[in-house]
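Protein modeling request. Please complete all fields; requests missing the sequence field cannot be processed.
Requester role: graduate student
Desired output: 3D structure, token encoding
Chains: 1
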Amino acid sequence: METLDPDLLKTFLAFVDGGSLARAASAVGRSPSAVTAQMQRLEEIVGEPLLAPQGRGRGLTPAGEDLVGHARRILAVHTEAWLALKGARVGGRIAIGTTQDFADHGLPELLRAFAASHPRVRIELRVGRSLELGSALQAGQLDLAITMRHAPSPDEAFLISEPMLWLCSDKGLATRQDVVPLALLDPYCGFREAALNALDAAGRRYRIAAGSSSLAGLRSAVNAGVALTPRTRRLAHSGIVEASPDLDLPPLPMAGFAIRLGREAARPARDLAELLGNGLALPP
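Delivered output (284 residues):
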């Protein structure tokens, strides 16, 4: 019996989470042809097709859908073993910075796993805006930072791509109107720029109904039904959902995030970066 290579499973799940082979290639840092070859190899091992043509792209076959849960469990056990073997005797301190997106969704569970396997490592967490965190990383105040990606940077260790969505209250907008009401973070914000560019390109009128320096402010405005906001599914909880297609909003681009390492980052920080790079992707 052939074994399921964790690297093949990581690429398979990158396709599942990203929705296309091109996005999977970006997520795992390989060329599209290499990702295609990996998927073909995984199909050879499984003995059945995992992907099938679906519209203009490819989707999962029944065998592919069955493999998703197994792949996540296999990689979870693989990560648990890797952490246990590497972390027991390691000490030190890690200063990590993150945007609120990840502080609320995804990061807490992974930090808990890391802390359990690295009991002698002290973790210091800082939550802020991407530009602020990038400056702190460059100044040596942080060992690791999760920031929105505006341009390639030599300190990037892992990349995460997620679809941007229009989000609103699960009760809808409080009042229907032709001008799109927006809740946006103060400049500079990549989500803000993407939303305004998309609306301008589509010729849709809009107004900024709520501005805030934090996601808490956006949540309040969106939950109240006074505005829409562009974000990823990480914000879609506690009464916030994807906006209805009836609103006929223009599509948004992918949101790119980077896990970045400081110049003096020690081994524990690099181990944590690898854990986050493999574990922060959103499930489908």
